[in-house]
């Protein structure tokens, strides 16, 4: 009886292991398709890429695409989610170091990714098809900016709990403010090709430094608190009072 139970348990374990391996393989294949499709979409645009061209790159058949995504539009939505995740997953919110150090690290990790050439191309693509493919635009906003707002606001809320940032302000509103200070002007200049590629690193550093400084000046508990030097008041007795206080000398 025990041997039968052991055999059944081993069979179940083997079956679970095989199923897990199959799921992992399927997920890997799916990611390969998404990343290959993303490269084509970014290079040539949504309308100019066909399912057949994607298959020629990743291999397989139309059945592979349809079984995993349903159609080209759903595949593009998977691309949107993947590229947004590439940005948000790299935002560094480790609570290590000073408040300014944490804010700077978080801001730089975000800006460096969102202003990378690949993500700038992604912004252009989503913007260009937003009218004819509104669902992709809404998905981009939910998985991109909205997720960044949440990540920033969670970090801000933690700093509020720790007494580092003013607690009388809404964390989400502060997160949106910080987000817009970091990439508001920057994203426009890169999208319109007004910025120079050789100045990328310099501009990122300048923007991060200024945005973090302004943000913490307005929000940090001890920001701008300058201790004025103590004023030492010395009271001098008037000559008359001083003279009166002197002991009388008997003549």
Mean pLDDT: 84
Q: Which structural class matches the secondary elements?
A: mainly alpha
* Gross CATH architecture of the domain at 85-219: Orthogonal Bundle
Shape descriptor reads globular
Distance between the first and last residues' Cα: 127 Å
Report the portion of residues in β strands.
Answer: under 5%
What is the tally of helical segments? Answer: 11
Region (Disordered): 1-25, 225-251
Keywords: DNA-binding
Biased composition (Polar residues): 1-16
InterPro entries: Homeodomain-like_sf, HTH-type_TetR-like_transc_reg, HTH_TetR, Tet_transcr_reg_TetR-rel_C_sf, TetR_C_Proteobacteria
Describe this structure in words.
Keywords: DNA-binding. GO terms for molecular function: DNA-binding transcription factor activity; transcription cis-regulatory region binding. InterPro entries: Homeodomain-like_sf, HTH-type_TetR-like_transc_reg, HTH_TetR, Tet_transcr_reg_TetR-rel_C_sf, TetR_C_Proteobacteria. By secondary structure, this protein is mostly helical. Helix content is 72%, strand content 0%. Helix 5 packs across helix 10 and helix 9 runs antiparallel to helix 10. The chain is globular, with a radius of gyration of 31 Å. The C terminus is likely disordered.
């Amino acid at each position: 009886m025990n041997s039968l139970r052991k055999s059944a348990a081993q069979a179940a374990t083997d079956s679970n292991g095989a199923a897990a391996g199959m799921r992992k393989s399927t997920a890997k294949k799916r990611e390969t398709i998404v990343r290959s499709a993303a490269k084509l979409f970014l290079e040539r645009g949504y309308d100019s890429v066909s399912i057949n061209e994607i298959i020629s790159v990743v291999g397989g058949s139309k059945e592979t695409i349809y079984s995993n995504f349903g159609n080209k539009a759903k595949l593009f939505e998977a691309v949107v989610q993947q590229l947004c995740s590439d940005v948000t997953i790299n935002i560094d919110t480790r609570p290590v170091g000073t408040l300014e150090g944490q804010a700077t690290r978080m801001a730089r990790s975000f800006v460096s990714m969102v202003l990378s050439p690949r993500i700038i191309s992604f912004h252009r693509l989503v913007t260009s098809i937003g009218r004819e493919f509104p669902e992709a635009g809404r998905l981009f906003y939910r998985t991109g900016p909205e997720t960044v707002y949440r990540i920033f606001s969670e970090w801000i809320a933690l700093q509020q709990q720790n007494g580092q940032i003013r607690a009388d302000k809404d964390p989400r509103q502060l997160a949106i403010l910080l987000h817009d200070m970091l990439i508001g002007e920057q994203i426009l200049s890169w999208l319109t090709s007004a910025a120079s590629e050789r100045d990328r690193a310099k501009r990122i550093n300048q923007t991060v430094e200024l945005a973090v400084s302004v943000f913490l000046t307005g929000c940090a508990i001890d920001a701008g608190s300058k201790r004025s030097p103590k004023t030492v008041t010395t009271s001098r007795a008037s000559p008359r009072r001083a003279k009166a206080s002197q002991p009388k000398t008997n003549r």
